[in-house]
Design brief:
Blueprint lengths: L2 H17 L6 H9 L6 H7 L14
């Protein structure tokens, strides 16, 4: 029970995506696909920080 409302919402969203027009920034898409970015490489390194890194790992033996 309750599946009808969820399915109706999914159908509505799918229909909006299918029939709506979007302004696509092809220059930004090209930069993203080619791997070139206007940000520093340090920003990219910080984004993928190791969640298991421990600041005290250097002191363990």
């Amino acid at each position: 029970m309750g599946r009808g409302r969820a399915k109706a919402k999914q159908t509505k969203v799918a229909r909006e995506l299918k029939y709506s027009t979007h302004d696509t920034d092809f220059d930004a898409l090209q930069r993203e696909l080619s791997g070139k970015s206007s940000q520093n490489s340090h920003d990219e390194d910080d984004k993928y920080e190791d969640p298991y890194a421990d600041e005290y790992d250097d002191y363990r033996r």
